Amino acid sequence: MLKDNITKALAPLGLEQVADGDYAKTGYHLEVAARPEQMPAVAQAMLDQGCFLESLTAVDLRESFTLVYHFANFSELCRTVVHASLPKEAQAPTISRVYPAADWYEREVYDLFGIKFAGHPDLKRILLPDDADFHPLLKDFGAEAAND
Amino acid sequence: METKTGDPLIKFGLLEEVLNLARANSLWPLTFGLACCAIEMMAVGMARFDLARFGAEVFRPSPRQSDLMIVAGTISKKMAPAVVRLYEQMPAPKWVIAMGNCAISGGPFFYENQYAIVPGADLIIPVDVYIPGCPPRPEAIIEAILTLEEKITKRGRLRKFRDVKR
Amino acid sequence: MIELGIEEKTYTLNLGPQHPSTHGVLRVLLEMDGEYITKAEPVIGYGHRGHEHMAENRNYHQFLPNMGRVDYLHALAYNQGYCMAVEKLIGVTVPERGEYIRVILSELNRLTSHLLWFGAYLLDLGAFTPIMYCFDDREHILDLLDRITGSRLTYCFYRFGGVPQDLDDEFITGVRAFIKRLRSRWPDYDNLVTKNVIFINRTKDVGVISKDQCVKYGLTGPTLRGSGIPYDIRKSEPYSAYPAFDFTIPIGDQGDIFDRYIVRLQEMEQSLRIIEQALDKLPNGPIMAEKVPKRLKPAEGEVYQAVETARGEFGCYIVSQGGIKPYRIKLRVPSFGNLSILPEIAVDTLVADLVAILGSVDVVIPEIDR
Questions:
Q1: How many CB pairs under 8 A join A and C?
Q2: Residues of chain C with pLDDT under 70
Q3: Which residues of C touch A136 (CB under 8 A)?
């Protein structure tokens, strides 16, 4: 079973939580909580199990950020979500060395939230114009920065 | 902005009327689909709605060879300089049709904290005809081409000679 | 602009945001060594309209029209993904007839999307006739969909808990007649395009994507299935009424453009099979769930719902903190991942091949830019 293989692969990394998810309610089979520094190791473990990176995003919780990584697999159904809590003004390590797909996803997170990824090959804005000076999805982004 | 829409330097008089008739009946649009309205613009050039019978089927990819720009879709702030540049690259006489709610006034994307779009094409280039709709039906685009023809030739359409009961 | 290097002469060419073959406002910066491309970098963001920011400023019902504009070619699937995600959050089940209607309309919409891809792709390659055929077929479907939903392109038809309007007999006879008509067109398309020598030369062994690249870049949809991996959410993670239907997942073997083209053609035939079976088995009953609150205040939590669209997997990730507006909605769109493979497979190709590869990946730019 893929879920057990993933749980076994993630066990030696010493993560905060690796628990079963409630699929009918949330759509996840496995819910993992990790620290951002552990993410490259987690990504490598998921790639070794043959999973692909479904989505990479962030949520602004006012006092901190949460980076959310979704992994899924082509051959067997098992959706894994990894939540990594990131303090404000901190940098997260990139996983684009493991998954090249993360290259664009991390640029989008930087563009919309201002979170920097250490080790990213080319961290620049992707959706907004290059000379924009605001990050729109932050919760304290107001009308003053937008109208010009 | 009025002078930029092609007030000619030399006035030909009666020949002008013939020239305007020729210009109106053979408009060459620029392929400028930005978002969803582009699909309806493609559909109007196809077999069912057939813009070719009005002379406007030849969509040119290059602005230097076209005289009508149909702004079909939302203009984002990143795209706005490109829109102005394309407009300036078109030779006079040139006309602009703003197609869809997004090109008229920002459409469904206009709200108080919107940071990403230019709410309306007429904020950056002069517009001649507006087509409301989200997206407008292809018949509405044909109506817009005919309205533009009326504007160019400064006379009504030929259908006035027929008894069309309204 | 000509830059003289020490060892090689390369120049930069800009495939601008306004271009007939870029399927929207995509810009590709090319560095060329003579006729061959050494580096291709897509620049996106010219269609960014702020959907995710709008989601935080609107309540759940007010965000429904946005979903039709994200990917306007298969808008009903995006409607379905969002409605299913919210239904999971509030714990509402759609009645069976509602699910069947959703499947029939979504599959008809998938047909319009694939037909448009087929026509527009051949227009990029220089053939002017197939697009006329495809748009003609497409107009028949749009008439049928217009009868029920009221729109031709940017649908906003599904509601939380079901669908608001039922199918009528004229729609059902129209769909059956259309299925017969489209099936009689497949030989036309085969003779026009599939057996065309120029088309085969331009698409065989061009733009090959390996299985390893598929996993690393997270590709989904026909772009993935052309490389031989049979991953389709309708079969791997069945949702709605799909478990009741019998259909196959077409896959390619080499991963070149020709395989992706064949996969899409065969998917159209499978969609026709699904629609036929759905019409035969259509159950009677209500189309809308009872007791759906008018003002939605879902409980705290998050949900991820995946749906198979014409381009790949659409994932709707909603975080709710108990208010009437969502706290965060992330739209995971297939074209975002599918386009990120372009810099890798465009190296050492000609510009004409780049246009062919870009078209075969089937991107819709407003979906990438959201």
A1: 96
A2: 1-8, 21-22
A3: 50, 53
Q: Which chains touch B (3 or more CB pairs under 8 A)?
A: A, C
Rounded-to-integer distance, Cα C116 and Cα C70, Å: 17
In this predicted complex, what is the ipTM? 0.89
Contact B78 C66 (CB under 8 A): no
- Domain assignment present for B146: yes
Q: Does A52 touch chain B (CB under 8 A)?
A: no
Per-10-residue mean pLDDT for chain B, 166 residues long? Answer: 54 80 87 86 88 84 89 89 90 89 89 86 91 90 88 73 50
CB atoms within 10 A of CB C240: 17
- Residue A113 is part of which domain span? 2-139
SS3 C247: coil
Backbone angles phi, psi at C254, to 5 degrees: -100, -25
Q: Which chains touch C (3 or more CB pairs under 8 A)?
A: A, B
Residue with tokens 């037909």: C115
Task: Give the closest of C48, C231, C301 to A26, CB-based.
Answer: C301
Residues contacting C342, CB < 8 A, separation 6+: C28, C40, C42, C357, C358, C361
The class that CATH gives domain C6-369 is: mainly alpha
Q: Does any domain span residue B160?
A: no
Q: Any idea what the CATH number is for the domain that residue A39 is in?
A: 3.30.460.80
Question: How many pairs of residues across A and B have Cβ atoms under 8 Å apart?
Answer: 16
Say if B31 falls within a structural domain: yes
Distance set, CA B24 to CA A48, B1, B100, B146, C10 (Å) = 64, 21, 22, 9, 45
CA distance B78 to B76: 5
